[in-house]
């Protein structure tokens, strides 16, 4: 045995290790492939050996080869073997290899489940760590499901090293197994406050990642994150949180308001550029979300823009890039503030870094206005000429078009200029965006009627110079513009100056080298052109010329008939026959032009791109139903060989009967419509036939003809767009002049001139009238279009599965699958293991089903309330804090403000409260209280913001409580349900107990801790001696003797509230629990450990939950006879009945069902579902309370408590 | 000699991404910004390449919009400094011959595409502890192998030192976008 070992290690000396392999590969540069295949053979031999060290070495080498791109999936099983080695050294090698080459499709991956589970629970933290790291790379849905629970446990591991890895990997688990998110979330949330910064940062990381995808579910965490943001010093965590807030603010604008201040502070204070940048980014996001109705944030915008300018001006290219990136975000909502930095951005266009230039281009897009468009585009055109790489040039080209066409050509004042820009762009070589230019040309020509004449002349020129453009069709896409040119010339042929020349240009033999779809358009539009020429000639009675042109067509068209492209061939042959027929008619001297032109009568209207989608499906039309039964396979063969001859035959037969030519024409028109429908180019045709025959509005829309006169438009060759810039300036000048003249007719010319000079600079956008009064035809939509824009979200989005409401309480069924008995055997048969898991799963629900359903109904209701409550909490946090911030309270713990007792303000709120009440009472009714509270709360919070006053929260509660009972408007003294728990020189504790709506045996104790000393209180721990009946719920793993840490520290003078949950078995008796609060007092002299004992009193009242009840339900309840009865009488009551009811409602959680004079019925419910009904009668000096309750003990205890309350009055 | 860290893509795409990335990154000037807009290859416009250039080495990270750009640059710096500490004056050859170690260090910083730890001291402590563990496991049995490798390494100077191809380490945080 020993000998074997020695032999093994001696063998190993001669095996190649990783270093040898690397060296070998480097020495065999010429025949690398051969060398590697040789190595792989060696590795295969090594893998066959028993020695795990040899195997690990082999796997290590394989990992390297995998990195070089060689397939090593064949060794997956060996990798698993190495993973299961007992030594960490080998295990690590195995996991590394697995993380590199395993993926979801690897079938052996399911063999690893048990191995990984074993490693996760290994006593060696590095075994666990390496397993977690590996798992994070190859986790599959199955692995995630089976291991989720194990990883959950690791999240509370004692070692932070493991905790942070476990927390981080949960994200991967959530992605693969979304069901685990809800059960795991509470613990994940806990980890946000983990003492170890690494774990904390991991938790922040995971939650940020989750929240980025589905932010709305994480809004309720905002207060927690806010706290972290103001307390954390780790920049990495801060950046994450700030980024998260950036994602949250669009959903909750009030959050943004809260954020602005701390963020601006950070911006001013931080030295880390990365943090500064992210702060600016989030402030921008906030501003975007606030953009409506928050006028006074211009300071923040200015700050951002200013900081960004510093970034952009920095010599560090990275900062410059990011600055531009952020700037483009501001641009969307506050273009004005960015426009002032135009100089800087134009400067960036000259940067040698392409990324920066691209960013600057993006910015330019938003910066254009009517005034500067020409200037900017001119600059861009210069860049187009200078640009070297085609990618950048293409980018420039698309940007120019984007900039000009944005917002329905909003910024274009002179379309002639734009057309000439487009024409200039056609001279670019090797661009891929020919189709873009073509689309623009078409769009402008169709939609801007006034420009057609000019457009047609330019297009005719393009067609004339087609040889320049089409010279090397193969490698550039610019010939696409010919498509547009041909169509425009054809469709608007009436505007052509020399149609004959254009027609000839289109009939050139060179055209046949163009791509098929362009030729097809050529052919089609030749006929349009021909038709218009024909009409012209006939009108001027030049019969010879007309026949000549027909002959020309007949001569040239055959070259298209021979085309290999089906579309071209079909169109050409069809048209050729048509023209031959026309020729026949011409020889008979029949005027044909009118009929030919009728082929193309009608106006094409642009249609909105979504129009087709929005046409509602008519009732009774089933689009999925077969119109005809699908033909059998044998039929389809017959359809194939439909050739031209077939068509021609038909046509010939029609030629023999010329008397039906009208019909023929009509049919052709139909056919043409059909063709148009099929031709993508014709998409813009109108779907509603009645609009087809609209007349073109006259050309009188063009107001400014005088400039056009000054410079001849028919510039020989291609015009320069630059001219237009000058022209435009002149034109504006003139306009200005005219305006000025009108205004100041009485003034003398000299003064006018002087003024003009000034006004040039102050000219605003509105003053610039466009050169062409273009009625940009709005795109048509079907009349009964569906208005809603449905979001087309990708249903396969993996993050969608994680869109889970985390505020809902956990249902019983939502538990992670736990494996109870671990299979000790080696994982030879994975199927065996799978089965029990599934069985367990299916059994569980069955057992619980019945119970579950019953509970479910009740829970549904409760859940809703719960949700409401949560929402309110957040609302409250959001609405209360700004007022606090404005009074410059320490922003450290903003949630404190809600419970801070501020003596100075005490008087004021009272008064304010009364006023509020007066308002409220007018519209009060005893029903639907809940909703009202909410509204009122909101109203009040608004009021508060205005008056910038603070209100004690208990008073607010009190208002609610009063509303339960009050019907008349009597002022009430303030009440607080918080009573003293214990107090010493350092700290004062007050508490309140509330039943938990969600669980029938839980109550929540809210304790307010107020630091009365000048020292810093920390490490507070609250412990209670559990009784048999009542137990404090402690974090998992803690023993009954451990205290529960208070999740905050208290600076001097500050108070904060913490909540503790207790489980109660029986609620019919009041209880007292002894407890201790231990804490550390820290001041300049040092720190001391202090204790404070207290007694926590659980009254029966605290188990009651205010539940509204209708009188009929109340009556039924009393009639049922299931309730036992008891009564008390208290003498010496002096306060009004009104106040009395309010007190009972507030302190004992009742609601008023009905009130008649000095008699009222009240109702409440315990957390365990006991009904409690009261009849309260007031005599001269006494009050009698008759109670009915499902439990006699509970009732008598309750009445005793009530007696005490009443006796105080 | 590229060290890569990619999961979830077939071998071909992986190699293609590396080639493309190297091509993109290596032709950039020294004084341009360190970010590259994501092409289709690296999973759409949400993703960015962020790189740093050290002598003959490029460290390239591919990140999506949830990461802070400047933060990642810092992270690369931390990574390089960590390498420097772990290898004691790291040089290119260290990375080439000890790819496995580089991976292990990286695993302590980035896990499954998410940043795990940014504190260098913490990382180094963990790496050292793991190395110690490894050494204790190797014990006597490992001695001969170490001796052999020492002998083998004596040939090192013969290896051409001037290699132009950098070390490209690509990690893809948020892998799902790659499916």
Automatic annotation (TrEMBL), chain A:
Residue ranges of every copy of the AP-3 complex subunit delta domain listed in the record? 660-807
Regions of biased composition (Basic residues) lie at 741-759, 841-854, 925-935, 943-952
Q: Which InterPro entries match?
A: AP3_complex_dsu (IPR017105), AP3D_dom_metazoa (IPR010474), ARM-like (IPR011989), ARM-type_fold (IPR016024), Clathrin/coatomer_adapt-like_N (IPR002553), Mu_AP3 (IPR058898)
Superkingdom in the source lineage: Eukaryota
Q: Which Pfam families match?
A: Adaptin_N (PF01602), AP3D1 (PF06375), Mu_AP3 (PF26171)
Family matches, as Gene3D superfamilies:
Leucine-rich Repeat Variant, Longin domain
Q: Give the membrane topology.
A: Peripheral membrane protein
- Which terms does the UniProt entry file under GO BP? anterograde synaptic vesicle transport; antigen processing and presentation, exogenous lipid antigen via MHC class Ib; endosome to melanosome transport; Golgi to vacuole transport; neurotransmitter receptor transport, postsynaptic endosome to lysosome; positive regulation of NK T cell differentiation; positive regulation of transcription by RNA polymerase II; protein localization to membrane
GO CC terms on record? Answer: AP-3 adaptor complex; axon cytoplasm; endosome membrane; glutamatergic synapse; Golgi membrane; postsynapse; presynaptic endosome; terminal bouton
Biased region (Low complexity) positions are: 879-891
Q: Where is this region: Disordered?
A: 622-696, 724-970
Major subcellular location class: cytoplasm
Query: Which family does the record claim for this protein?
Result: Belongs to the adaptor complexes large subunit family.
Q: Spell out the protein name for this chain.
A: AP-3 complex subunit delta-1
Q: Which organism is it from?
A: Sarcophilus harrisii
TrEMBL record, chain B:
What domain of life is recorded for the organism? Answer: Eukaryota
Q: Which Gene3D superfamilies match?
A: 3.30.450.60
Q: Name one Pfam family in it.
A: Clat_adaptor_s
Family annotation (PANTHER family): ADAPTOR COMPLEXES SMALL SUBUNIT FAMILY
Q: To which protein family does this belong?
A: Belongs to the adaptor complexes small subunit family.
In its UniProt entry, what is this protein called? Adaptor related protein complex 3 subunit sigma 1
Report if keyword Transcription is assigned. Answer: no
- Asked whether the keyword Protein transport is assigned, the reply is yes
Name the job this protein performs.
Part of the AP-3 complex, an adaptor-related complex which is not clathrin-associated. The complex is associated with the Golgi region as well as more peripheral structures. It facilitates the budding of vesicles from the Golgi membrane and may be directly involved in trafficking to lysosomes. In concert with the BLOC-1 complex, AP-3 is required to target cargos into vesicles assembled at cell bodies for delivery into neurites and nerve terminals.
Per the record, its GO cellular-component terms are: AP-3 adaptor complex; cytoplasmic vesicle membrane; Golgi apparatus
Q: What transmembrane ranges does the database entry give?
A: none
- Record membrane topology: Peripheral membrane protein
Enumerate the subcellular locations listed in this protein's record, separating them with semicolons: Cytoplasmic vesicle membrane; Golgi apparatus
For the biological process aspect of GO, one term held by this record is: Golgi to vacuole transport
Supply the alphabetized keyword list.
Cytoplasmic vesicle, Golgi apparatus, Membrane, Protein transport, Transport
């Amino acid at each position: 045995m020993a000998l074997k070992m020695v032999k093994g290690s001696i063998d190993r000396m001669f095996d190649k290790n990783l270093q040898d392999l690397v060296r070998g590969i480097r020495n065999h540069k010429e025949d690398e492939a051969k060398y590697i295949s040789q190595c792989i053979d060696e590795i295969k031999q090594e893998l066959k050996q028993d020695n795990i060290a040899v195997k690990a070495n082999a796997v290590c080498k394989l990992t390297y080869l995998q990195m070089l791109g060689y397939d090593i999936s064949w060794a997956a099983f060996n990798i698993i073997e190495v993973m299961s080695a007992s030594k960490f050294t080998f295990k690590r090698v195995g996991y590394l290899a697995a993380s590199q080459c395993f993926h979801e499709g690897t079938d052996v991956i399911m063999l690893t489940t048990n191995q990984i589970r074993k490693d996760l629970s290994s006593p060696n933290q590095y075994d666990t760590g390496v397993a977690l790291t590996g798992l994070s790379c190859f986790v599959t849905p199955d692995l995630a499901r089976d291991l989720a629970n194990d990883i959950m446990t690791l999240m509370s591991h004692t070692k932070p090293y493991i905790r942070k890895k476990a927390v981080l990997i949960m994200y991967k688990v959530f992605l693969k197994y979304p069901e685990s998110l809800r059960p795991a979330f509470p613990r994940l949330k806990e980890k946000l406050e983990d003492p170890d910064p690494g774990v904390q940062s991991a938790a922040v990381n995971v939650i940020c990642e989750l929240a980025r995808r589905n932010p709305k579910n994480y809004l309720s965490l905002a207060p927690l994150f806010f706290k972290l943001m103001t307390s954390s010093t780790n920049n990495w965590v801060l950046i994450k949180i700030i980024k998260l807030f950036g994602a949250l603010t669009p959903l909750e604008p009030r959050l943004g308001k809260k954020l602005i201040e701390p963020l601006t502070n950070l911006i001013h204070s931080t030295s880390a550029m990365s943090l500064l940048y992210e702060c600016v980014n989030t402030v921008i996001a906030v501003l975007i979300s606030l953009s409506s109705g928050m006028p006074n944030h211009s300071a923040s915008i200015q700050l951002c823009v200013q900081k960004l300018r510093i970034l952009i001006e920095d010599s560090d290219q990275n900062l410059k890039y990011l600055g531009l990136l952020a700037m483009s975000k501001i641009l969307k909502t506050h273009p004005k503030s960015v426009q002032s930095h135009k100089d800087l951005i134009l400067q960036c266009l000259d940067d040698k870094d392409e990324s920066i230039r691209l960013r600057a281009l993006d910015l330019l897009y938003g910066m254009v206005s009517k005034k500067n468009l020409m200037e900017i585009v001119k600059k861009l055109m210069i860049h187009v000429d200078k640009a070297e790489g085609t990618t950048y040039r293409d980018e420039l080209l698309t940007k120019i078009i984007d900039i000009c066409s944005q917002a329905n050509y909003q910024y274009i004042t002179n379309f002639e200029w734009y057309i000439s820009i487009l024409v200039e762009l056609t001279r670019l070589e090797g661009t891929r965006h020919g189709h873009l230019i073509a689309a623009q040309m078409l769009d402008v020509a169709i939609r801007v009627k006034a420009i057609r004449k000019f457009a047609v002349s330019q297009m005719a020129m393009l067609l004339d110079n087609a040889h320049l453009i089409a010279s090397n069709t193969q490698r550039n896409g610019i010939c696409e513009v010919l498509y547009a040119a041909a169509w425009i010339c054809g469709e608007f042929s009436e505007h052509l100056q020399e149609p004959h020349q254009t027609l000839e240009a289109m009939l050139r033999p060179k055209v046949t080298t163009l791509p098929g779809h362009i030729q097809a358009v050529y052919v089609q539009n030749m006929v349009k052109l021909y038709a218009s020429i024909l009409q012209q000639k006939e009108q001027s009675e030049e019969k010879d010329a007309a026949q000549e042109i027909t002959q020309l067509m007949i001569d040239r068209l055959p070259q298209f008939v021979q085309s290999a492209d089906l579309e071209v061939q079909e169109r050409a042959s069809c048209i050729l026959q048509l023209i031959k027929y026309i020729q026949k008619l011409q020889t008979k001297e029949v005027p044909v032009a009118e009929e030919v032109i009728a082929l193309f009568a009608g106006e094409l209207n642009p249609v909105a791109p979504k129009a087709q989608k929005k046409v509602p499906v008519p009732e009774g039309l089933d689009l999925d139903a077969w119109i005809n039964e699908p033909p059998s396979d044998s039929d389809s063969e017959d359809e194939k060989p439909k050739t031209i001859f077939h068509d021609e035959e038909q046509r010939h037969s029609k030629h023999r009967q010329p008397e039906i030519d009208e019909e023929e024409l009509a049919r052709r028109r139909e056919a043409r419509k059909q063709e148009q429908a099929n031709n993508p180019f014709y998409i813009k045709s109108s779907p509603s036939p009645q609009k087809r025959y609209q007349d073109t509005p006259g050309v009188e829309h063009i107001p400014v003809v005088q400039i056009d006169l000054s410079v001849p438009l028919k510039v020989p060759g291609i015009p320069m767009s630059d001219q237009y810039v000058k022209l435009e300036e002149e034109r504006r000048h003139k306009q200005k002049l005219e305006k000025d003249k009108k205004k100041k007719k009485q003034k003398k010319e000299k003064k006018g001139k002087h003024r003009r000079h000034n006004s040039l600079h102050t000219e605003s956008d509105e003053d610039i009238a466009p050169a062409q009064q273009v009625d940009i035809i709005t795109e048509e939509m079907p009349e009964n279009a569906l208005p809603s824009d449905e979001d087309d979200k990708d249903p396969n989005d993996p993050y969608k599965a994680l869109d889970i409401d985390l505020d809902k309480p956990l249902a019983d069924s939502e538990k992670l699958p736990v494996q109870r008995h671990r299979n000790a055997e080696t994982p030879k048969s994975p199927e065996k293991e799978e089965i029990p898991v599934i069985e367990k799963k299916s059994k569980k629900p069955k057992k619980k089903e019945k119970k579950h359903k019953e509970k479910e109904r009740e829970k549904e209701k409760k859940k809703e309330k719960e949700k409401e409550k949560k929402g309110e909490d957040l609302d409250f946090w959001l609405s209360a804090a700004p007022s606090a911030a404005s009074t410059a309270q320490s922003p450290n713990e903003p949630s404190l403000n809600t419970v801070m007792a501020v003596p100075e303000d005490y008087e004021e709120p009272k008064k304010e409260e009364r006023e509020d009440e007066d308002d409220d009472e007018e519209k009060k009714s005893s029903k639907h209280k809940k909703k009202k509270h909410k509204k009122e709360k909101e109203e009040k919070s608004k009021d508060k913001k205005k008056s910038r006053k603070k209100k004690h929260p208990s008073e607010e509660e009190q208002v609610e409580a009063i509303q339960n009972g009050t019907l008349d408007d009597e002022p009430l003294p303030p009440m607080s349900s918080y009573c003293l728990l214990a107090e010493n020189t350092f700290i004062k504790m007050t508490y309140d107990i509330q039943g938990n709506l969600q669980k029938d045996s839980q109550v929540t104790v809210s304790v307010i801790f107020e630091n009365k000393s000048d020292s810093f209180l920390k490490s507070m721990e609250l412990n209670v001696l559990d009784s048999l009946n009542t137990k404090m719920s402690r974090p998992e793993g803690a023993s009954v003797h451990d205290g529960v840490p208070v999740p905050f520290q208290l600076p001097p003078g500050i108070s904060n509230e913490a909540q503790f949950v207790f489980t109660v078995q029986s609620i019919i008796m009041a209880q007292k629990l002894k407890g201790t609060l231990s804490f550390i007092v820290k001041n300049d002299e040092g720190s001391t450990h202090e204790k404070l004992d207290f007694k926590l009193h659980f009254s029966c009242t605290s188990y009651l939950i205010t539940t509204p009840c209708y009188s009929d339900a109340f009556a039924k309840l009393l009639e049922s006879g299931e309730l036992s009865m008891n009564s008390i009488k208290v003498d010496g009551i002096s306060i009004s009945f009104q106040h009395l009811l309010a007190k009972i409602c507030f302190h004992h959680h009742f609601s008023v069902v009905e009130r008649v004079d000095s008699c009222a019925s009240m109702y409440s419910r315990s957390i365990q579902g006991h009904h409690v009904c009261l009849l309260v009668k007031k005599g001269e000096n006494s009050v009698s309370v008759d109670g009915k309750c499902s439990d006699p003990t509970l009732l008598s205890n309750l009445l005793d408590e009530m007696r005490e309350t009443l006796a105080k009055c | 000699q590229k060290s890569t860290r990619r999961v979830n893509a077939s071998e071909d795409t992986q190699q293609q991404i590396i080639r493309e990335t190297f091509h993109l990154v290596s032709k950039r000037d020294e004084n341009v910004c360190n970010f590259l807009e994501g092409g289709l290859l690296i999973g759409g416009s949400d993703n960015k390449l962020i790189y740093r250039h050290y002598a003959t080495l490029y460290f390239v990270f591919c990140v999506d919009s949830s990461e802070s750009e400047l933060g990642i640059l810092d992270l690369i710096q931390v990574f390089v400094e960590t390498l420097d500490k772990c290898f004691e004056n790291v040089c290119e050859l260290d990375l080439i011959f000890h790819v496995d170690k580089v991976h292990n260090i990286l695993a302590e910083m980035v896990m499954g595409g998410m940043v795990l730890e940014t504190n260098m001291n913490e990382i180094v402590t963990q790496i050292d502890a793991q190395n110690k563990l490894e050494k204790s496991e190797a014990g006597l049995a490992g001695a001969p192998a170490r001796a052999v490798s020492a002998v083998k390494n004596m040939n090192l100077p013969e290896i051409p030192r001037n290699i132009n191809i950098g070390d490209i380490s690509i990690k893809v945080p948020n892998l799902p976008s790659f499916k």
